[in-house]
Predict the 3D structure of the following.
Amino acid sequence: MPRNLKEEVVFTAIMAGLMVLVMTGYNVAMAQGLSSGLVMEILKGYPLGLIVAIILDLLIVGPIAKGLAFKYIINDYMKKNTVLIGITISVMMVLGMVTFMSFFGIAVEGKLAQGHILATYGHTWIFNLIVALPLQLIIVGPIARGVLGKMQSAAAKKAEAEEIVEEEV
């Protein structure tokens, strides 16, 4: 878990950046197929999707997911194992982000004006969840946590070195 603002920003940038990139590619491919313009469509949709995802992550989904997880799901046993906490929060985050980003996706594609909006949203939500959950738990989450762990380890070594220097003075 990030311990300060710098770590939170890096962690969120990696997590949101990778998730939005892959999910944008997936959704564009699902909508248009594997066409010659696929890469350009992904690059066109990526910046706005990333901005929306970061805002949702930091201001809405993140705080709600963490609050619900620690209030209702994470118990004393789970607190002894940080991996269980990470997995729980990751699942809660995916559920929240898929809920909002699926709506964002159909809105951007102009499908809100069409009929059968609930069917379109439900279909989009399920298909996004099927890809986003394993993507988060197996690929993106471990990458982001790995980078965060290296940052925290480097910060701890730096603090330890500074403490030794202070003791010598």
Observations:
- The CA atoms of residues 29 and 36 lie 11 Å apart.
- The chain is about 85% helix and 0% strand.
